[in-house]
């Protein structure tokens, strides 16, 4: 992570430009050389212009960890969809559902990693990211079905945080 | 559209559309049914994750079946939803915290 203020070609984030190019090709559903060229010009230009909007640059490290993380997140989203559906329909065997806030101390410091964690947590039904204390790095979550705080600390710190730290730090 | 949809695309699409529709409906029902603001944040997420995912997969199957070539650009919708939905959810939940919304009694 380094502060922006990069000039010339260094303003262009290669990852952002590559992502924009892939998006362009997918939107046009083509691999034709003409569209590839248009997409490449657009991607580089947009990445260059948007550099001013991004106060922090990120560097990716262990990108190989992303596949495992993605699989885990998809499995968790699937499972929590079923759990939340059961709670809404009342199919919980008469158990009282208690929801509440959980505080989790994070070791993940990279803002891009934290943003990714926020997206993961909020996209999973049953958990919403509420706040992250910038001084203590303590994350507050709201959990719909809160049986034990330790379960959620284990999920965040065990399943997501190591991979995110590997990718972003 | 005169082209007929082959069975290998139609059958999974039917299952996926029914699942996606049910999940989204249950999610919206949960918004009505759950007791307080914070609890109500959770069920609609079903519609934007697995619900939308099922419907987009069905769309991929139907388009691929009709056009006879793989159609996968629906995946972009998933990417955009995953990037934008948390922003509104966090804005709502933080606004509620800021205004000091009291949690109502549990049923």
Question: How are the SSEs placed, and which strands pair?
Answer:
The complex is a heterodimer of chains A (169) and B (107).
Chain A: E1 2-3, H1 14-28, H2 33-50, E2 56-57, H3 65-89, E3 100-105, H4 111-123, E4 127-132, E5 138-143, H5 149-168
Helix pairs in contact in A: 1-2, 3-5, 4-5
Chain B: H1 7-33, H2 37-40, H3 44-67, H4 75-98
What does this molecule look like?
- The complex is a heterodimer of chains A (169) and B (107).
- Helix content of chain A is 54%, strand content 13%.
- With 169 residues, chain A is an alpha+beta fold.
- Chain A folds into 2 domains: 2-57, no CATH class; 65-168, no CATH class.
- Chain A is globular and about 60 Å long.
- In chain A, 28% of the residues are buried.
- The mean pLDDT of chain A is 87.
- Chain B has one domain.
- In chain B, helix 1 packs antiparallel against helix 3 and helix 3 runs antiparallel to helix 4.
- The longest helix of chain B is centred in the N-terminal third of the chain and has 27 residues, at 7-33.
- Chains A and B meet through helix 1, helix 3, helix 4 and strand 4 of A and helix 1, helix 3 and helix 4 of B.
Name the structural class of chain B. Answer: mainly alpha
- Biggest sheet architecture of chain A: 3 strands, antiparallel
Count up the domains of chain B.
1
Shape category of chain A: globular
Q: How would the global form of chain B be characterised?
A: elongated
Number of helices of chain A: 5
Mean pLDDT of chain B: 86
* CA-atom Rg of chain B in angstroms: 18 Å
The tally of beta strands of chain A, per DSSP, is 5
First-to-last CA distance of chain A: 8 Å
Instruction: Provide the low-confidence segments of chain B as ranges.
Output: none
Question: What oligomeric state is this?
Answer: heterodimer
Strand arrangement, largest sheet of chain A? 3-5-4
Our count of domains of chain A comes out at 2
What is the mean pLDDT of chain A?
87
Strand/helix succession of chain B: HHHH
Q: Helicity level of chain B, as a percent range?
A: over 70%
Proportion in β-strands of chain B? under 5%
Measured between the Cα atoms of the first and last residue of chain B, the distance is 51 Å
């Amino acid at each position: 992570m380094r502060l922006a203020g990069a000039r010339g070609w260094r303003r262009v984030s290669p990852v952002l430009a590559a992502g924009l190019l892939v998006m362009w090709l997918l939107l046009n559903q083509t691999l034709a050389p003409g569209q590839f060229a248009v997409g490449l010009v657009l991607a580089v230009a947009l990445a260059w212009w948007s550099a001013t909007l991004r106060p922090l640059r990120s560097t990716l490290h262990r990108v190989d960890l992303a596949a495992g993380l993605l699989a885990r997140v998809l499995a968790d989203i699937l499972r929590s969809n079923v759990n939340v559906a059961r709670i809404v329909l009342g199919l919980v065997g008469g158990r009282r559902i208690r929801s509440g806030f959980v505080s989790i101390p994070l070791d993940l410091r990279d803002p891009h990693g934290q943003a990714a964690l926020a997206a993961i947590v909020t996209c999973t039904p049953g958990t919403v990211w509420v706040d992250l204390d910038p001084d203590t790095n303590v994350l507050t979550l709201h959990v719909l079905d809160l049986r034990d705080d330790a379960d959620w600390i284990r999920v965040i710190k065990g399943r997501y945080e190591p991979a995110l730290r590997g990718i972003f730090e | 559209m005169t082209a007929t949809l082959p069975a290998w695309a139609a059958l999974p699409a039917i299952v996926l559309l029914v699942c996606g529709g049910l999940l989204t409906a249950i999610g919206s029902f949960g918004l009505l049914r759950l007791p307080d603001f914070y609890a109500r944040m959770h069920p609609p997420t079903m519609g934007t994750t697995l619900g939308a995912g099922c419907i987009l997969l069905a769309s991929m199957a139907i388009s691929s079946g009709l056009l006879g070539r793989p159609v996968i650009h629906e995946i972009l919708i998933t990417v955009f939803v995953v990037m934008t939905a948390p922003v509104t959810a966090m804005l709502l939940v933080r606004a509620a915290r800021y205004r000091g919304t009291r949690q109502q009694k549990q049923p």
